[in-house]
Design brief:
By secondary structure, this protein is α+β, with helices and mostly antiparallel strands. Helix content is about 45%, strand content about 30%. It has four helices and six strands; from the N terminus they run βββααβββαα. A four-stranded mixed sheet has the order 3-5-6-4. A two-stranded antiparallel ribbon has the order 1-2. β5 and β6 form a beta hairpin. The longest helix is centred in the C-terminal third of the chain and has 15 residues. The C terminus is likely disordered.
Length: about 100
């Protein structure tokens, strides 16, 4: 499945290693160093001119790539959620939980 991460940019959801909030993670020097290194080495892309709020680390063609996105991590997660939970969303989990609960009685 492809995921819209803002700025008319689509990425393959299977390639995502992590989704990180810029405000919380860039407090740490190693994260800032990693993002600076990615930019200098050419394996990062800012997908929009809007204020960046998150970054995604992916693997493409066996190489890391960083996308800097204007979307909040929660928004990205909600867009991924149907794929993670299945097309039926929570109902799928409820059915599984209900079956396990029934079996355990």
């Amino acid at each position: 499945m492809y995921l819209d991460i803002g700025g008319e940019t689509l990425i393959r959801s299977e390639s995502i290693l992590g989704i990180f909030d810029l405000d919380n993670t860039t407090v740490n020097k190693p994260t800032r160093d990693y993002l600076n290194h990615a930019e200098k080495e050419g394996y990062s892309k800012t997908v929009s001119y809007d204020l960046p709020k998150s970054f995604l680390v992916t693997v493409e063609k066996n190489s890391p790539f960083v996308y800097i996105s204007p979307l909040l991590t929660g928004t990205i997660y909600k867009r991924l959620r149907p794929e993670i939970l299945g097309e039926t969303g929570n109902r799928n989990l409820e059915e599984q939980y209900g079956k396990r609960r029934t079996q355990s009685k």
